[in-house]
């Protein structure tokens, strides 16, 4: 069970093949992570932990890797009612799903987002995970994106079923199967090259996320050009 891509590198590749390549072969060129980004990661992690209590009594797996994938397969085989950070490998890609829940004879997938709205990145994340879980031999009964309800404050007393909104994206996941497989193949091809793809900076450097290779790539741009990209909606 080897793997080359992860969920985050796939999402990076969706934004820019050059970023995907540099991240793999020149990670030392990445810009420093800001305090704001670190805080966002920590917030996401904390909300993910709280959301596990939507389906209490599950087993949490440690860091994604080959042993977590094997353990996930064992727990599924044993009929475990809920698995947190369930790990799957297929098509040279590894993913860790926030919550896998036994429903009837199968399992449904729940991917939790700490934000109060769903974005295209979250959908792409769900499409990838569905594809990999399916490819590993477990077709999810349903796939849900779960995000925060902006009207309900998250405290220890909050009814968690009110604090989160569930969106069934199973049908879209199914429709995207072929496209996701093609994307993965294209990214794996990029990573076989002996030099980074020749991609000139542009609007894609800021969407959906500000790329962390701007420090090297944007040297090709004038200050004015950089300002225009930074201030584009
Ligand atoms: S800065 Fe722009 S061109 Fe360079 S790797 Fe990032 S997204 Fe690609």
Task: Give an overview of the whole structure.
This protein is globular. The chain is built from nine helices and seven strands, in the order βαααβαβββαβαβααα. Helix 5 links the parallel strand 5 (106-113) and strand 6 (143-148). Strands 1, 2, 3, 4, 5, 6 and 7 form a seven-stranded mixed beta sheet that branches. The chain has 233 residues and is of the alpha/beta class. 30% of the residues are buried. 43% of the residues lie in helices and 18% in strands. The N and C termini lie far apart (42 Å). It folds into two domains: 5-198, Alpha-Beta Complex (Lambda Exonuclease, Chain A); 200-233, no CATH class. The chain has helices at 7-15, 17-25, 35-51, 66-77, 120-135, 160-163, 170-190, 214-217, 223-231, and strands at residues 5-6, 59-60, 82-90, 93-103, 106-113, 143-148, 164-168. The protein binds iron/sulfur cluster.
CATH architecture of the largest domain: Alpha-Beta Complex
Overall CATH class of the largest domain: Alpha Beta
Bound molecules: iron/sulfur cluster
Radius of gyration: 19 Å
What's the number of helices? 9
Quaternary organisation: single chain
Query: Could you say which structural class the secondary elements and strand pairing correspond to?
Result: alpha/beta
Order of helical and strand elements: EHHHEHEEEHEHEHHH
* Residue-averaged pLDDT: 94
The proportion of residues in beta strands is 15-25%
Tally the structural domains: 2
Described by strand count, sense and barrel closure, the largest sheet is: 7 strands, mixed
Instruction: Measure the end-to-end span.
Output: 42 Å
Task: Give me the CATH fold name of the largest domain.
Answer: Lambda Exonuclease, Chain A
Can you tell me the overall shape? globular
| Low-pLDDT residue intervals, each spanning 5 or more residues | none
- Specify the helix fraction band: 40-55%
Number of strand segments? 7
């Amino acid at each position: 069970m080897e793997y080359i891509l992860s969920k985050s590198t796939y999402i990076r590749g969706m934004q820019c093949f050059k970023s995907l390549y540099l991240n793999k072969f020149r990670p030392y060129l990445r810009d420093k992570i800001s305090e704001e980004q670190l805080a966002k990661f920590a917030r996401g992690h904390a909300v993910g932990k709280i959301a596990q209590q939507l389906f209490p009594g599950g087993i949490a797996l440690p860091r994604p890797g080959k042993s977590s994938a094997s353990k996930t397969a064992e727990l599924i085989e044993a009929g475990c009612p809920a698995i947190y950070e369930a790990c799957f490998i297929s098509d040279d890609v590894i993913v860790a799903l926030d919550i896998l829940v036994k429903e009837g004879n199968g399992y449904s997938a729940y991917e939790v987002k700490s934000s109060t709205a769903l974005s295209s990145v979250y959908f792409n994340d769900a499409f990838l995970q569905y594809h990999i879980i399916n490819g590993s031999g477990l077709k999810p009964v349903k796939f849900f994106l779960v995000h925060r309800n902006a009207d309900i404050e998250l405290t220890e007393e909050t009814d968690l079923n009110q604090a989160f909104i569930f969106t069934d994206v199973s049908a879209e996941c199914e429709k995207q199967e072929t496209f996701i497989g093609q994307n993965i193949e294209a990214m794996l091809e990029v990573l076989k090259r002996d030099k980074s793809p020749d991609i000139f900076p542009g609007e894609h450097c800021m969407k959906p996320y500000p790329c962390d290779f701007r420090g090297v790539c944007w040297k090709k741009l004038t200050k004015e050009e950089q300002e225009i990209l930074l201030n584009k909606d």
